[in-house]
Every structure is written in C-alpha cells, then in structure tokens.
C-alpha cells in the first residue's frame, strides 16, 4: 500500500471557514490524504482564506510567496487557494502567484477531489461557481471517528443585507438555508460521536429559513428541535443580524435551557448617520431596545458585538456615539476593526477617514471594550458556573473548558475528562481565563445576572 498523501490545510477568518476546512479535509481524506501541520511534508497545501478586510487578503499572498522554496524542492507539491479570496479574485490569484495550481470558491468544495485529480495531470483547476447542487450533500459524510466535545455546524450561508462595507454578499452569495432534517441528522451523528455542544453557523444565522416538517422553519424552531436530542447539552449560534432577532428566538433565550446565555449581535456603529450610510437598516436606539428585550428574556446573557471605526465620513461626534452605545450595552466580548476599503463595495468609493484617525479611534474603542470585558470576567469570581471541559491544560492535572458564558475556565485535578460538564466555583480571574474549583456536580448553578 502506498503511503498516504499529506495535506497541509491552513484556515483564516471566521468559524464558517473552520467548518468548511473540516469538510474539505474529509473530502480529500476520501482521496487518501491525511493532514499534517508541517507544510514541508505536504503533497498539497490548501489555504482557506478570508477576504473581509484587506489585511486578511494580503496575508494570503505573502503566505503563498513563502511556499516558493518548497515547490522548487518538490515539484509534485500542489498548492490551492480556497475560501473567500478564491471566490473574489478567482483566476487573478493564478496570474499574481503562478505557483498556485488550484482555486476553489466556498460553494464548490464538493468538487475538490476532481479538481485535485486534474492538478495531478499537470493542469490548473479553477472553480468559483455557485452550483445548483448542494455542496453539503455532495461532500462525503463526516467519518464516524470519535471527536471532541464541541463542534460547528453550518446551517445557513450567504447574506442579502448588503452592508455598504462588506464583501460577504459578493463572496458567499445570497442567503441559503439548509433543510432542517439534514441539520438534525448531522447533529445526531455528531452527538453519537461525543459532541456535547454545537454552535450553529451562518453569515446571517438568525435569518435561517430552512425547509422543515410542516413548512418553513425559523432558527428558533431548529433550536427547539436540537433541544430534543439526548446527549446534546449546549446550543450556540453565530453570527446574527439585529433585524432578524425575532420574537421566537428571543423567547428561546429565556426558555430553552440548552441555549447558552451568550449572544453575538454586531451593531457596527452607534451613530444613526453612520448606520444609515452603512445600510444597516436599524438605529442605535432600536438596537438598544432590542438588547433590553433580550435581557428581559434572559437577564444574565452575555452580549458580544462587532464594531467598525473610521467608516467613510465618520466624525469624532459619530465615533463618540459608538462609545456611548458600548457604554449603554456593557459587552462581555467585542471585536473591533478599522474600516478597510473593499473593492466593489459602495463605501469604497466614498471619502475616507485618515489612517491615523482610525488608529486613534481603534485604540480608544479597544480600551473601553477591554475594560468591559475584564469587568464581565471579574464579575464571575465567587459565582458557580457550569463548565464543559475540552482538554488538559498546560499544568499537570489541569483541565480547561468553557463556561456557559464562553469564558475559558481552568481547574486543577478532579478526575475530569474531555466532554465532562461540572459545576465550578470561580475563584480567580486572570488575563484570558478564569480559575475555579469543581464542586459537587449536583450543586445548584447560580445563573443570576452578574
Ligand atoms: N472593514 C472593516 N471591518 C469589516 N467587517 C466587515 N467588513 C469590514 C470592512 N470592510 C467586520 C464587521 C463584521 C465582521 C465580521 O467584520 O464588523 O461584523
Ligand atoms: Fe456583511 Fe452586513 Fe451581511 Fe454581516 S449583515 S455578512 S456585515 S453584509
């Protein structure tokens, strides 16, 4: 038997890319590939790329440049680019970097085996179509191997919102939801293989409208169906748009015990003028009211958000409105970015904010959210939370996992294994994680708001 071929697969960007990378590895696994974390051992190098900001896209080209030496030593090495840069730039990638053999867009991963075969014939392979067939069904089933306690599951792809700064509607296409039964059977299969927490993924996950039993299913309906799967203990979803936060989903946050008290709900900015120019179709006020309603349903929910500073024509006053909104919400987590011009998007053509102004605003915004994140984490000290343990920590006898609120938690000893859920009393709050001690697992968990 010949030695397996080796695949070096590097993932950039969001969790949807992480999910896609797993599926690509499985598709190529069917062709005899095993993964390696050493590019120098690889027979194929595949970069699963992100196009959301300029820096992310440029990283791909500098990474590709680094493989030139490897390809010179090993002419059989095939190099591929997948993901959103592949979708956005297509053939241009091969022109700019001739050592690339294969370019595959996010909707065509199921065609990877044929494409790989083509490259073995010495040809270049390019596929950035939005094909009719369902890539999820065409991809080989996930292998039946046991797996870790947490998993991503893509339920929806694409976006119809067309925020003025964003490439996603162009790179990932229109909103498409997977049929509910396929998601449920994938979830059941994951649970049989040891998964206890599933994060439902979608560029606009709460715009989910999948065909299901009795008609069109909302995300809330899907969550309630997942709630009925024995052995599945935790459900999360990301990323949501404020305008799709429907009543049934808010209600599920109050009533579905498996739905975790954490919500990533990007607002992007706090000035109504900027929100309008961003084409967000909500105001700062409507967002704040929405957060109030969500907190009325689930008072201890930890809010998370995304922010862009230096969007075209953002004034100091507009920026101050973003800081005010952050103050008003109190985020447990937040991700912030300098506006990055993306060719082909409406905002790219508008008057730009100077780079040093963006830098200054980003620093000020990050200082505020770091304080808030830290306060939310510190407020956990003294509380008892449930933790799903994922892996051993760096110290002997240490286990690390995530609380319901997604804080990393480490404990010492306790005979725990990956996949165990235990009640933990939080005793310390460090730079990036909480420390605690496992208490009697039958002890009540304090889920009162911090
Ligand atoms: N510039 C900066 N940030 C962006 N995002 C999306 N497009 C851009 C851009 N052109 C951010 C948004 C989004 C997150 C995934 O990335 O905040 O919510
Ligand atoms: Fe991009 Fe806006 Fe769609 Fe989110 S909602 S993916 S930011 S266009």
Automatic annotation (TrEMBL):
InterPro entries: Elp3/MiaA/NifB-like_rSAM, Methylthiotransferase, Methylthiotransferase_CS, Methylthiotransferase_N, Methylthiotransferase_N_sf, MiaB_methiolase, rSAM, rSAM_horseshoe. [4Fe-4S] cluster 1 binds at residues 14, 50, 84. It is an enzyme of class 2 (transferase). Pfam families: Radical_SAM, TRAM, UPF0004. Residues 378-440 form the TRAM domain. GO terms for cellular component: cytosol. Its EC number is 2.8.4.3. Residues 145-375 form the Radical SAM core domain. It is found in: Cytoplasm. Keywords: 4Fe-4S, Cytoplasm, Iron, Iron-sulfur, Metal-binding, S-adenosyl-L-methionine, Transferase, tRNA processing. Monomer. This is tRNA-2-methylthio-N(6)-dimethylallyladenosine synthase. The lineage of its organism: Bacteria, Pseudomonadati, Pseudomonadota, Alphaproteobacteria, Rhodobacterales. The gene is miaB.
């Amino acid at each position: 038997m010949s030695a397996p071929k080796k695949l070096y697969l590097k993932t950039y960007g969001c969790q949807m890319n992480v999910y896609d990378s797993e599926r690509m590895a499985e598709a190529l696994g069917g062709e005899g590939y095993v993964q390696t974390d050493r590019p120098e051992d690889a027979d194929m190098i595949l970069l699963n790329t992100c196009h959301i900001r300029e820096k992310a896209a440029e990283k791909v080209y500098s990474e590709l440049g680094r493989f030139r030496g490897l390809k010179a030593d090993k002419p059989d090495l095939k190099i591929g680019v997948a993901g959103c840069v592949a979708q956005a730039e297509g053939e241009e990638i091969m022109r700019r970097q001739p050592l690339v053999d294969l370019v595959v867009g996010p909707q065509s991963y199921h065609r990877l085996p044929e494409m790989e075969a083509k490259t073995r014939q010495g040809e270049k392979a390019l596929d950035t179509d939005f094909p009719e067939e369902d890539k999820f069904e065409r991809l080989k089933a996930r292998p039946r191997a046991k797996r870790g306690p947490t998993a991503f599951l893509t339920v929806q792809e694409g976006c119809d919102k067309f925020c003025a700064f964003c490439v996603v509607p162009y790179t990932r296409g229109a909103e498409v939801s997977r049929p509910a039964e396929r998601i449920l059977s994938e979830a059941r299969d994951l649970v049989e293989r040891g998964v206890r927490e599933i994060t439902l993924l979608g560029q606009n996950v709460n715009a989910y409208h999948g065909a299901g039993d009795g008609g069109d299913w909302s995300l809330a309906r899907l969550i309630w169906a997942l709630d009925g799967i024995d052995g599945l203990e935790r459900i999360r979803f990301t990323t949501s748009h404020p305008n799709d936060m429907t009543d049934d989903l808010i209600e599920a946050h109050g009533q579905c015990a498996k739905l975790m008290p954490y919500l990533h709900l990007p607002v992007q900015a706090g000035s109504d003028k900027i929100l309008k120019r961003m084409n967000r179709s909500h105001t700062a006020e409507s967002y704040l009211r929405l957060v109030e309603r969500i907190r009325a349903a689930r008072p201890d929910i930890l809010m998370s958000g995304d922010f862009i500073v230096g969007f075209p024509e953002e004034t100091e006053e507009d920026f101050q409105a973003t800081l005010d909104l952050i103050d008003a919400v109190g985020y447990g987590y937040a991700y912030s970015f300098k506006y990055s011009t993306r060719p082909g998007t409406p905002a790219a053509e508008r008057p730009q904010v100077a780079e040093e102004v963006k830098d200054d605003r980003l620093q000020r915004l990050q200082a505020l959210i770091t304080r808030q994140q830290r306060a939310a984490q510190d407020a956990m000290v003294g509380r008892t939370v449930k933790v799903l343990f994922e892996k051993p920590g760096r110290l002997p006898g240490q286990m690390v996992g995530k609380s319901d609120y997604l804080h990393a938690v480490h404990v010492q000893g306790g005979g725990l294994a990956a996949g165990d859920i235990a009640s933990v009393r939080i005793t310390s709050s460090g730079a990036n994680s909480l420390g605690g001690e496992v208490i009697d697992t039958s002890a009540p968990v304090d889920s009162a708001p911090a």
